[in-house]
């Protein structure tokens, strides 16, 4: 009977190690990344996470830059359209 209790305790600890808080996440990519991180060494998981963060920052920067540029062009177009219209009371 002692062997059975030890076996159950060991199996519980094994499952506790394998499952992470991200297992309940609604994002399947995060869930997959968390699972894969448990299969590798800490240093490797840390390097991968660092590379992912850098890539996300670059993508976010490029996207923000594109949005800013497009909104700047839109503002210039609106300003030129407003300047082309004659306002009531203009002498012209």
SSE blueprint:
Elements (H helix, E strand, L loop, with lengths): L1 H17 L9 H11 L3 H43 L8
Oligomer: single chain
Number of domains: 2
Name the poorly predicted regions.
none
Number of helices: 3
Mean pLDDT: 68
Structural class: mainly alpha
Shape: elongated
The tally of strands reads 0
Largest sheet, strands/sense/barrel? none
Q: What's the end-to-end separation, in Å?
A: 102 Å
Order of helices and strands: HHH
Give Rg in angstroms: 28 Å
Strand content: under 5%
Helix content: over 70%
Q: How would you describe what is shown here?
A:
The protein has 92 residues and is mainly alpha-helical. It has 2 domains: 1-39; 41-84. The protein is built from 3 helices and no strands. The protein has helices at residues 2-18, 28-38, 42-84.
TL;DR of this structure?
The chain is mostly helical and 92 residues long. The protein contains 3 helices and no strands. Helix content is 77%, strand content 0%.
